[in-house]
From TrEMBL:
Residues 70-250 form the Radical SAM core domain. Keywords: Iron, Iron-sulfur, Metal-binding, S-adenosyl-L-methionine. Pfam families: Radical_SAM. InterPro entries: Aldolase_TIM, MJ0674-like, Pyrv-formate_lyase-activ_prd, rSAM, rSAM_sf. Its cofactor is [4Fe-4S] cluster. It comes from Candidatus Lachnoclostridium stercoravium. [4Fe-4S] cluster binds at C75, C79, C82. One of its GO terms (molecular function) is metal ion binding. This is Radical SAM protein.
């Protein structure tokens, strides 16, 4: 898997992201030799927006100390409701002279050092958020850091992955934290510009489970308290969208019918908040109702999908989005 003819995500853009590009990320400024930016608009230079202890993941990930979360810039999806839109959507990340831009460029060595600093701060794990567009660089950074890293690696992604990407992460990742956003290709095309989302994500999630195996937990006790931490496994996330509870129930039914029992945890989220371009889709320009979430939750219980987490309706708050202020970089 390579930047030179990019094949890192299911879009398979095939552009050469390793060529030098102008300081401007204006598409018109790219030289003719650069075949035009791929969907993610990223080059081979790694940009991140934050690296800090994060308390807002699932309890088995955040624990009592926090998850050592690295938020990367860019994304292979284009979700109209993205809560991290400040850093995920092009054009996003060139630093300005005042250091107020969304992202900071990191060398491979600097990224490895970020991982180690988070471990030194007491992180329960290193949590890579939306890293696929930088996969070759992330693996090189992990190779540098691995001799000193003693905590699990978490791959936190939108689920839109190639099986080959998951294979490339074998031996590097302990815990997968994928979304499974949509069942209906019309929804994924309209809201994330990826009509093949479920076709790709369903295969990727199955590959994650085959690789990680059944969930493994460990008791932790420290100065801040006790908790049960996941050391290995897969937590499948699904966020219920307003007006689309039926699609959510189809996803849960597919999970129950197609994935090995007791081989994953479910995280059923109610935190949807209208962000970014949600207003362009009237049906998405509101929060979900208690009725919608309860119907999906009841369906999960009927299916026996009770290993995992649910959210209170009050979780739909903007505070779940951290400040992308280059902390920890």
């Amino acid at each position: 898997m390579t930047y030179e003819s990019c094949d890192l995500c299911p879009r398979m853009c095939g552009v050469n992201r390793a060529l030098p590009v102008p300081e401007s990320r204006d598409v018109s400024a790219f030289p003719p030799a650069f075949q035009g930016p791929g969907f993610c608009r990223c080059t081979s230079e790694v940009y991140a927006a934050r690296a800090a202890l994060h308390m807002w993941e699932e309890p088995c990930i955040s624990g009592v100390n926090g998850s050592g979360t690295v938020f990367f810039c860019g994304c292979t999806l284009g979700c109209c409701f993205c809560q991290n839109y400040q850093i995920s959507q092009p054009v996003f990340s060139l630093e300005d002279p005042d250091g107020a831009a969304a992202g900071k460029k990191l060398t491979i060595r600097q990224l490895a050092d970020v991982f180690l600093r988070l471990q030194d701060q007491g992180a329960h794990n290193i949590n890579l958020v939306t890293a696929t567009q930088y996969l070759p660089s992330v693996i090189r950074a992990l190779d540098l850091a691995r001799p000193k890293l003693k905590i699990p690696m978490v791959y936190n992604c939108g689920g839109y992955e190639r099986e080959e990407t998951i294979q490339a992460l074998d031996g590097y990742v302990d815990i997968y934290l994928p979304d499974l956003k949509y069942f209906d290709p019309e929804l994924s095309k309209a809201y994330s510009r990826a009509g093949d989302y479920f076709a790709a994500a369903s295969k990727a999630v199955a590959a994650m489970i085959r690789q990680a195996g059944k969930p493994v937990f460990e008791e932790y006790s420290g100065a801040k308290g006790k908790c049960l931490l996941m050391k290995k496994g897969v937590v499948i996330r699904h966020m219920v969208l307003p007006g689309h509870k039926d699609d959510s129930m189809k996803i849960l039914s597919w999970i129950r019918e197609n994935l090995p029992e007791k081989s994953y945890y479910i995280s059923l989220m109610s935190q949807y908040t209208p962000f970014f371009h949600s207003k362009d889709h009237p049906e998405l320009n509101r929060r979900i109702t208690s009725y919608e979430y309860d119907k999906v939750l009841d369906h999960a219980v009927r299916l026996g999908l009770t290993d995992g987490y649910m959210q209170k309706k009050s979780s739909a708050k903007e505070e779940y989005t951290p400040p992308f202020n280059l902390e920890g970089l």
